[in-house]
């Protein structure tokens, strides 16, 4: 049986926990699909040595070589650091390598050499001096793939959520919520659920913005003037959409059983429930791209970097989900 195409695993910030997560994910090796790290092999070997982990590191010259070595060693396509990484101390000198790792992983996946991109956490403010001009991974990947509307989904075994607006202040978020944006984000979400999750007729729950979903306009009118009209148009397109729903009651066990994805109006409205229910297995998935991209649902965790206590569960879940989505895409193709 042929070895499946590997996943491309990016470096993340070298001062964070990404390197430790990468070596621990290789130790887990739960999926039948290999991954190749786009990282500094000396850094990864040093992390494994310092933490007492039996993780041989093997440099490969091409992603296609990863499958042959993955059972016995962690395959690495070298992306060399400019300065030694110090746990917990971000160094702008290494920003170019972090960016290059993401760019190369994206290029490999667009070319079909790797099946998906799995990204370790980055520290955005450290990257700005190297020309990084994006709010985060999602927007950078959209630029690299010429995607007009990337959509962020957080997925766990028991819940999927999508915020209509993402990294914006509450004040700015109010300006961003329009009928057109709700429709566009929901369309991308529905298409992804059909293509990657195999859900032929996705059930989509859309939250209101105000307390009690506005309570007939007494607590806010956005549900009447913006959200309900968007829902009507989506239903006219044949989508199974409910709402606007009161956000404080749409995440109970009974409520979650009635939909396949919950659409929140803003970042915290959507993400707090998922992170509260299953922080360690939440996966960030970027929808709307021409490639599959997943990522752990946490940051660089500088405070615990290098201590050997970082939990790799979310990265392992990201690898597992990327492998699952890639397999479904390959099968349907």
From TrEMBL:
Record localization: Cytoplasm
Keyword NADP applies: yes
EC number: 1.1.1.262
Molecular function via GO: 4-hydroxythreonine-4-phosphate dehydrogenase activity; cobalt ion binding; magnesium ion binding; NAD binding; zinc ion binding
Gene Ontology CC entries for this record: cytoplasm
BP GO terms, sorted: pyridoxal phosphate biosynthetic process; pyridoxine biosynthetic process
Main subcellular localisation: cytoplasm
Residue intervals passing through the bilayer: none
Residues that hold substrate according to the record: 137-138, 275, 284, 293
Assembly description: Homodimer.
NCBIfam families, alphabetized: pdxA (TIGR00557), PRK05312.1 (NF003699)
Assigned protein family: Belongs to the PdxA family.
Protein name: 4-hydroxythreonine-4-phosphate dehydrogenase
Species whose genome carries this gene: Limobrevibacterium gyesilva
């Amino acid at each position: 049986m042929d070895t499946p195409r590997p996943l491309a695993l990016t470096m993340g910030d070298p001062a964070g926990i990404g390197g430790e997560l990468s070596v621990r994910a290789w130790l887990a090796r739960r999926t039948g699909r290999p991954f190749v790290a786009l990282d500094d092999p000396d850094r990864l070997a040093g992390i494994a040595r310092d933490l007492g982990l039996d993780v041989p590191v093997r440099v490969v010259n091409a992603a296609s070589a990863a499958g042959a070595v993955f059972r016995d060693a962690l395959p690495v396509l070298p992306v060399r650091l400019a300065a030694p990484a110090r746990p917990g101390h971000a160094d702008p000198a290494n920003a170019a390598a972090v960016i290059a790792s993401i760019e190369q992983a994206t290029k490999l996946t667009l070319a079909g050499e790797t099946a998906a991109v799995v990204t370790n956490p980055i520290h955005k403010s450290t990257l700005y001096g190297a020309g990084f001009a994006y709010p985060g991974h999602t927007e950078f990947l959209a630029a690299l793939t010429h995607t007009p509307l990337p959509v962020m989904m957080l997925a766990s075994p028991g819940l999927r959520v999508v915020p209509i607006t993402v990294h914006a202040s509450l004040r700015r978020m109010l300006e961003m919520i329009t009928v057109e944006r709700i429709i566009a984000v929901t369309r991308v979400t529905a298409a992804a659920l059909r293509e990657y999750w195999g859900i032929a007729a996705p059930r989509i729950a859309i939250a209101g913005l105000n307390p009690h979903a506005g309570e007939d306009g007494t607590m806010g009118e956005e549900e009447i003037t913006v959200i309900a009209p968007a829902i009507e148009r989506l239903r006219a397109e044949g989508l199974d959409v409910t709402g606007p729903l009161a956000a404080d009651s749409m995440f109970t066990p009974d409520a979650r059983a009635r939909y396949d994805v919950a659409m929140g109006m803003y970042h915290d409205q959507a993400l707090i429930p998922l992170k509260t229910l299953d922080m360690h297995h939440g996966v960030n998935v970027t929808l709307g791209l021409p490639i599959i991209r997943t990522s752990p649902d946490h940051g660089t965790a500088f405070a615990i970097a290098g201590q050997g206590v970082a939990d790799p569960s979310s990265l392992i879940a990201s690898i597992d989900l990327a492998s699952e989505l890639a397999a479904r895409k390959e099968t349907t193709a």
